Amino acid sequence: MLANVFVKTTRDRWKGVAIGVAALASLLFFGMSVYRDIDLSVYTNLPEVFLTLMDIPKDADVGSLAYGAIYGSYGTLTMAALALSMGSASIAGEERKGTIGLLLGNPKSRVSVLFAKAASLVLLLGLGSLVLWGAGVASAEVLSVEIGGMHVGALVFHMFAISIFFGFLAMAIGAWTGSPGAASGATAGIMFISFVGAGLFPVIEGWENVAKAFPWYYFNGSRPVTNGIDWGHISVLFVGIAIFAVAAIVGVNRRDLKSQTVAVTLVDRLRNNPLTHAAIDRLAGSARVSRIWIKTASEHQGLLFVIAALMFFMMGLMIGPMYTLIDEAMAGFADSFPEVLLSLFGGGDMSTPEGWYQIETFGMMAPIAVMVATVVIGSRALAGEEENRTMGLLLANPVRRSTVLLQKTLTMTLYGFAVGLATFAGVAGGSLLGGLGMSIGNIAATSLLVTLVGLAFGAFALALSAATGRVRVAVFGTVGVALVLFVLNALLPFNDSLVGYAKISPFYYYLSSDPLMNGMHWGHGAVLTTLIVVLVALALVLFQRRDLRQTG
Amino acid sequence: MTSEIAIHTEDLTKHYGDVKALVDLDLTVERGEIFGFLGPNGAGKTTMIRTILDEIRPTSGSASIVGLDSHSDSVEIRRHIGYVPGDLAMYPNLTGRDTITYFANLRGGVDWSYVDALADRLDADLSKKVGDLSSGNRQKVGLIQAFMSKPDVLIMDEPSSGLDPLVQREFQALMREVISNGSTVFLSSHTLSEVQRVADRVGIIRHGKLIALEAVASLRSKGIRKVELFFDSPVDASVFEPLPGVDDVAVQNHHVTLSFSGQMETLLRVITDRYSLVDISTQEADLEEIFLTYYRDDANEVAD
């Protein structure tokens, strides 16, 4: 029976891991072939602070650049996200689906089910890591890139450890709460803060040791690709993993299992309180269900709140004053920055507050934040109702399929703009707090462009959702396409003959005009808007023609 | 097309790849009747309903509801119908009242006194979150949202699943009431006893084909009876099987059950000539037996 839970979980999950690993392996190959063709001498004069932040070793060469950029950042985030999704679904996922009772109707304990799920997580991530290791060595071999003295295996092993760390953290939270949403949300938040913190603090003089508080530090703080496995750091991660495993076992045994998770929110409590009943009932009851788009918006308000708060405080307000801390260190290097290199990280010039914000906030985090909001709504908009079998009931009312789709598109658009607005307010506030004197208009322009690029991918998810009725296809399809287009946009400009092809990536129309310095590029805004309109129109056509799915 | 017809399908066909879920279905449901749509699991009942509601599109053929084309006029149709999907699912985080309000808003309003009356009759609790309700109580919310707009046509797929017998009875009374006010009920079910109790006509579907279409009254008047016979010694099935009007012979030692249509005298004469009859009981066959009879005929047809 244990073998069956294990085998079933592995069978359900191997495809996601396989797709992620295959994408990363091909990105590595692509990245390495691009790096091979460019002149790396630009790296030799780089300031150390910059190298630290971007995770590039001092004696950078083709191999270490490729491993650092592809495996060290995207790769590890991807693997950790896969582990997180498996971990949070382990017990809590079965509870939400209502299958836990059936599963435990068999003569197996809760702990043995948890063990089977954990074993499957470790196996799949382990196999994935082995493949990445092999792909790392093989790519270098095929492209004749010299990687002597570089420890690909050590990097991948550290990657494996940090992924399992976050996977088990999610599993422990899920075991205690029974809520897969809480497990994945909290873990993703911790992972995000940890990723930023471990990258940021080592650059700030006097604050270097703060980085050790973040788990991510134990992934790359010791530079495993250069220095090999750091057993001290690895053991820190494994102690964490063991603690989470024990916490999960204790957690899953101490509470009542849920038959179907219905969250009791703060609003529910206020609604049941006689003092606040009348007002809240209007707001949470009749107002919430007055329109399709309002109801859709109410379903993901927690997610929106977390993302907007993160962007406003962590990535907005706090980044400004930090610039004043590193300002000194940066001042001398303004001229030594090769422009071509910086475009890889969003084209920011670290010696200016605009460049600082571009690298810290707008380059990667802001598009990810907007996309999380838009892609979640876009992919769940239609396929979610189909998989939950509520679409038939909804469409038994006199509303057109197109009305449902457009109202949900409206919600998605509002969510995108809400995150964009939070980013704008945070960055503008951070600029004021730090006395950086950045142009408010340019911050607004950049925030608008990032909102549009996020909405473009939301619309892509919507089209996939409309075409297939499957949430997973929409989510993984969009994330995969976005990852590839992001890297293409970052790397293609390095090759003179391929530079024009960067224009096929929507990300090109976001930062290539350097909006933080130059203000709004209306032409690029128009390209993104057109793309959004075309994708929504496509979604409309696809959704009209299709048989609705009845089951998930 | 006259508005006297509630639901009409013509050569309605739906294939999923090689699977023929519906085959040339011709069906007309009159205004003001309760139509029972019977068939075993997987016969095509739900596919038929989802097709006429434009959730899925027919491979060929067409359908109309109250004279409106089920594809091109689908939105207008939905102003006239109430629908209870099979295997009902709703929004777990909304209360029953929120759910009703949501659908009422999409319909442009609802008579709340009627909603409350329905909730009262079905003993439904609208203040709880749907996700916290048992499946029967959830089903009640589904029934209320279907009945609340006083629709011309009620289309319900296995609507009594999970309801306790008392609520089932109330639900059947409710169906008869809306019929008397001129509505039409299309009731898909595999619960024969329920259909037998409320329906005016039944259609029987199997493997996507409509294999029988009859008034419940005339089905009964076919006079099929279930006969049980007890003898003082073991008997042989081959004696009963060739007799005219005899079907479904099951012999267990001294005990025989069979279904019989025709004059009882002919049956008794043959039997008493051969064996010594100890006891006999006979009762009117219910739809189940009639239903099974149809199915066997259908199976034989396929075998031929």
Could you name the key traits of this structure?
heterodimer, A: 552 residues, mainly alpha, globular, B: 304 residues, alpha/beta, six-stranded mixed β-sheet, 11 helices
Characterise the protein shown here.
The complex is a heterodimer of chains A (552) and B (304). The radius of gyration of chain A is 24 Å and the shape is globular. Chain A is mostly helical and 552 residues long. In chain A, helix 15 (301-317) runs parallel beside helix 22. Chain A contains 27 helices and no strands. Chain B is an alpha/beta fold and 304 residues long. Chain B is built from eleven helices and 14 strands. In chain B, a hairpin with a 2-residue loop joins strand 1 (5-16) and strand 2 (19-30). Chain B is elongated and about 75 Å long. Chain B starts with a strand and ends with a helix. The relative contact order of chain B is 0.13. The model of chain B has no long low-confidence stretch (mean pLDDT 87). The chains are: A mainly alpha (552), B alpha/beta (304). Chains A and B meet through helix 14 and helix 21 of A and strand 6 and helix 3 of B.
Structural class of chain A: mainly alpha
Helix content of chain A: over 70%
Distance between the termini of chain B: 38 Å
How many beta-strand runs of chain A?
Answer: 0
In quaternary terms, these chains amount to heterodimer
State the order of secondary-structure elements of chain B, H for helix, E for strand. Answer: EEEHEEHEHHHEHEHEEHEHEEHEH
Radius of gyration of chain A: 24 Å
Number of helices of chain B: 11
Structural class of chain B: alpha/beta
Strand content of chain B: 25-35%
Could you give a short account of the major beta sheet of chain B? Answer: 6 strands, mixed
The average pLDDT value of chain B, as a whole number, equals 87
Q: Characterize the largest beta sheet of chain A: strand count, sense, and whether it forms a barrel.
A: none
Helix content bin of chain B: 25-40%
| End-to-end Cα distance of chain A | 25 Å
| Topology order of chain A in helix (H) and strand (E) letters | HHHHHHHHHHHHHHHHHHHHHHHHHHH
Task: Give me the count of strands of chain B.
Answer: 14
Note the total helix count of chain A. 27
Give start-end ranges of low-pLDDT stretches of chain A.
none
Low-confidence stretches of chain B: none
